[in-house]
Amino acid sequence: MSQRLAGPIFLLVLLIALNILSLTDRFLIAAFGTQIVKDLDLSHQQFGLLTGFGFILFYALAGPVTGILADRFGASRILTIGILLWSAMTALTGQAKSFIGMMLPRAFVGIGEATLNPAATAVLSRAFDSQHRAVVLGLYFMGGHIGVALAYQIAGMPSIEWRGVFTWLGIIGIGMACLLVAFARAMPDALGRPESADRKDTAPSMMGLIGELLSLARRNSTLQLAILGMALLHLIYAEIQFMQIWLASERGYSPDAASALYGQTYLLTAVPASLLGGALADLMARHPSFNRASFIVAVIMVTLPLVFLFRIAEPGSTLFLTGMVASIALFTLPYGAMVAIILDQVPDGIKASTTALTMFTVNVLIIGSATYFLGLASDIFASINLDEPMSSALLIMDTLLILSLVAYARLHTKLKAES
To answer: Out of 94, 211, 294, 360, which could bridge 166 as a Cys pair, Cβ 3.0 to 4.6 Å?
Structure first.
């Protein structure tokens, strides 16, 4: 391996590992859903708040701040503080005895984890050329998908107690923060500031960065549409939060079996989907008649009908398992392409800030609201004695995913006109 490639590759591996840890932490509550609901005596509405706004609101509000800080001062310090914060609060989550006792540390987990994606996408965009951006970002976000699968795999192990898992992951996170510090000292260029920020006479101020970001967001309709499309496709992410509860309460699986099945399926689907999706999107973007949005449109058209069938198919049947795979592929196949389209629209100096703005939109407008709606709708449907209330709520959310197809079809047209 050449010296020129060694740094970026080691950086990519480290950031993938951090993303695995981050999403494992984040999805443990969903993966242990039935156990936590029982132990803390929660309603589905309260569970939706824990996995939705209780985490998402703070994650989203902190995101723009941490993104601007990363653009202005560099990634390593901001990210190290974030890892230490989310790891300590993850360990504290394991001590929760009530809804409030869990919600408070989850808020701080959200603030800590908000440092990761803005910093990571910015440094990776600088470290690798734009032609391979969807592949690189697909690999990075693959780490997150592995983390989701790992959370469910852990929850699916017999006799595993959820409180101890949170404690141990907090300890592992503190060790990862130490590793990041060592890497940053050994290779300061990899996790440093953008070149302009290193020259004090030309470094933009915090207000200057905010002004540049907001100005670009207002005048660039392609960027607006790319952010909207990504936000709408995250409706499927909100559904994942209730997967274990749905499988256990309405599809006849035991809690352990539900977590194990979904974890295994997610891992076997998400990893190859992340690798293949980025490569296919970059390849399609080189053809004059297509672009990365074309790839996303194709993915939605193929997978979304199977997701609808997943909700009504016989549990354990071929159609049921195929639909489960499709629901995961719908989210993981186009992820690198979605982020790459957004980053292609902005200069290097505000890439972290733009990622943070995107995550704010995704989390506040879609994930937080949709997760709360799913829990609330399920409780309302149950109160009127509707058969399979969670399935009904999920089918409504699946229908709304059609809006993401409309957004990316429009984006394909705009990108083609601009090329």
So the answer is: 94
| Identity of residue 58 | F
| Rounded Cα gap, residues 306 and 317, in angstroms | 13
Q: Which of 100, 25, 103, 110 is nearest to 59 (CA)?
A: 110
Determine the Cα–Cα distance for residues 323 and 365; give it in Å rounded to an integer.
26
Q: Look up the CATH number of the domain holding residue 21.
A: 1.20.1250.20
Global confidence as pTM: 0.74
Amino acid identity of residue 346, one-letter, is V
Q: Which amino acid is at 108?
A: F
The single-letter code of the amino acid at 37 is: V
At residue 168 the predicted structure's pLDDT band, cuts being 50, 70 and 90, is very high
Q: Which residue has the higher pLDDT, 124 or 265?
A: 265
Max Cα–Cα distance, the chain, nearest Å: 67
pLDDT category of residue 412 using cuts at 50, 70 and 90:
very high
Token reading at 251 = 């599809």
Which of 300, 294, 298, 292 has the alpha carbon at shortest distance from 341?
A: 292
User: Is the predicted pLDDT of residue 195 greater than 50, yes or no?
Assistant: no
- With tokens 């919600």, the residue in question is 103
Tell me the CA distances in angstroms from 106 to 26, 41, 111, 135, 232, one per residue in order: 9, 18, 9, 31, 24
Kindly calculate the radius of gyration of the chain based on its CA atoms and give it in whole angstroms: 21
Using alpha carbons, select from 381, 337, 159, 364 the residue that is nearest to residue 255: 159
Closest CA relative to residue 30, chosen from 59, 61, 54, 63: 54
Query: In sequence order, which residues have a C-beta less than 8 Å from that of residue 224 and are 6 or more positions away?
Result: 217
The range of the structural domain enclosing residue 247 comes to 3-418
Query: Rounded CA gap, 406 and 297, in Å?
Result: 9
- Tokens describing residue 69: 């800080």
User: Residue 178: pLDDT band by 50, 70, 90 thresholds?
Assistant: confident
Return the pLDDT at 197: 46
Q: Give 29-49 pLDDT, tens digit per residue.
A: 888 888 898 899 988 888 888
By the 8 A CB rule, do 298 and 283 touch? no
Q: How confident is the model at residue 259 (pLDDT cuts 50, 70, 90)?
A: confident
Q: How does DSSP assign 244-280, residue by residue? A: HHHHHHHS---HHHHHHHHHHHHHHHHHHHHHHHHHH
Phi, psi of 174, rounded to the nearest 5 degrees? -65, -40
Residue 5: pLDDT band with limits 50, 70, 90: low
